[in-house]
Amino acid sequence: MVRSALGNNATIGRGPRRLARYWPAGSVAIASTLSVLPIVTEVGWGPDFGFLMLIAWRLLRGDAIPAWWAAPLGLFNDLITGSPVGQSIFVWTASMLMLDLADRRTMWRDYWIEWLLAAILLFISQVVRWDVDALMGASYAFRLIWSPWIIAVLAFPLAAFTASAVDRWRLGR
């Protein structure tokens, strides 16, 4: 009788999934491993999927990934992608701090502002990557960073959708 009053889709008594607090970091780590797909190019065309997912989680839920998690997740990304150790640690930690500052300074945010913030952070990440590559002797034209940046900006809605789907699943909604 109680069941019929609540309906078949009752959410009473359902809570977050087991280890729910670790799913955001796990999804960032899984996204980082997408870079090991067997695609060979002279200059990277694809975005940094782990960074894209980190930004999506941070913009979706500020409490899902604490700022200090950026350093270990960045280290994992550096080790998986073959980037110089410290590059992702620096960029990801600085991005989390910038997003914390943006949260404190803005009164409201809509999807377009989040997309703009993501585009700015992704561009900064590409410039830092280009600069570190040049310091290590792998210099290439600056114009070659535009295509991965455009692909990353266009892939942000997919990352945001994935983060929101994982968030709904992990919280049992």
From TrEMBL:
Keywords: Cell membrane, Cell shape, Membrane, Transmembrane, Transmembrane helix. It is found in: Cell membrane. It comes from the Bacteria. It is a multi-pass membrane protein. Its main location: membrane. It holds the Pfam family MreD. The chain crosses the membrane at residues 21-40, 79-99, 111-128, 140-166. It comes from Sphingomonas arvum. Belongs to the MreD family. This is Rod shape-determining protein MreD.
